[in-house]
């Protein structure tokens, strides 16, 4: 019901005058307060466009409601602002919102029309259009004072999991000569370790300039396959080279950590290094003494394209969730899926030594395909995989899609990370994530370098 400010004030004064004539008994006097403010503002549920997937994989959109009660609204009493710094999801509709508004001393709330000076009484049953910032005013009980707020309901303009590659990519001549490569992020730089078929090569570029690459000359001679053994832990790079475990913080100056009688360094948690020998998966605290890991069941370890990813447990201290991914040898390529193993690594005193267990044994659905030069990294809150042509019984075409796992490697689906129109060798390429959550795709033969990131990583708090 529309009212103007004068009518509202007259109404409030009438209520006050009428109430003052209802009796003189002190026990029945009613006190009317002369000050007020909006003290709370929240939205519980909101209309939204929702997506459902049919059995044939097609998506359809329907209207529904979602809960947004976790999104907090802040009230700036000094500047008269009400806003949510964490924007609502992009699929919500703010044309008919039912907010819950609390006031001091039971003040009366009205809001201004977008197109005129008319006002509306706030009601919990009447939706309000917050497409644009809305002016809301609260009046005191005695009608003699008021306070006005500018209310803004922030909504993301992009989907959280939509991915955007940069507008341009770089052609880097230095990288075209590499026939094998692996990228890692280290202290503000992206490094590519590889070889040109005869000798090891190392190149680096600043995370802020993915087109400017410089060759790095290590202070030690690297074996031609040293690129397979590069990992980063706690801002330090480690590399297995000619039976020695080396470390560096700049990719150039390397020092020896220990003699390591292992075949390949595959990864590390916050507490241990992990490596492969000819017939076992082993771990070590300092790289000098290695202990064989136990694996439940008769599970063959991967022998190529091996990567280990570690994530600290969100609940338990000194605990890591580990995932080991890779491909078996071609002589053992009897199916079309990669090997995925998992383990909970507990490092507190008197904690048990848990075994590894297979995520693929006996499963038929949502498995990671066996792809040439399989690349698996942690990207944000998920595991991301990418690869060339299918191997064994896998018939996938090279670079068909990115795969993601949000449950720690147990299941894999098509990722929201899109595949750009790039040119690359089907066997020589690498992916890595940098410290700013950018994903890098580095291509063999063409020397193309692509960089992009999920939209949610670019979001900042709004006001």
Identify the notable features of this structure and list them briefly.
463 residues, mainly beta, five-stranded antiparallel β-sheet, disordered N terminus
Describe the structure.
The chain is mainly β and 463 residues long. 3% of the residues lie in helices and 39% in strands. It has one helix spanning 5-20; strands at 2-3, 38-42, 45-53, 59-67, 74-76, 81-83, 100-103, 108-112, 119-121, 134-139, 146-152, 163-165, 170-171, 180-186, 189-195, 200-206, 213-215, 230-233, 236-241, 244-248, 255-259, 264-268, 273-276, 281-284, 291-292, 304-312, 319-327, 339-346, 357-358, 375-379, 382-386, 403-405, 413-414, 429-433, 439-443, 448-454. The chain has a 7-stranded mixed β-sheet with strand order 1-9-8-10-11-6-5. Strands 12, 13, 34, 35 and 36 form a 5-stranded antiparallel β-sheet that branches. It has a 4-stranded antiparallel β-sheet with strand order 14-15-16-17, with no helix packed on it. Strand 20 (244-248) and strand 21 form a beta hairpin. It starts with a strand and ends in a 9-residue tail after the last strand.
